[in-house]
Predict the structure.
Amino acid sequence: MGCLESLPYEVLMSKISFKEAREFLSRYPEKYDVAPGYRMFDLNIIGVPPIRVAVDGDSLIFPYTKPCHGTFLIRVPNATDEIARLRGRA
């Protein structure tokens, strides 16, 4: 199982709802909806479907929920492998 702390991430928003995350990510031209349980960076993404993720250059932006801490919008740079995998499922 992966750990968010092992990634070079940036927190864009914190303590947000899944709806707020979806609305924020809708502004990006390249976005995808994934099902709860989808794995990115060896992390299971949990939340209320549809879970939206966005591509911004070589960065991947997605909501990440830490139990007891809430949902955060995370940007991970240099995510080319995960972006390619995400594009491949579309």
Observations:
- The radius of gyration is 12 Å.
- DSSP finds two helices and seven strands in the chain.
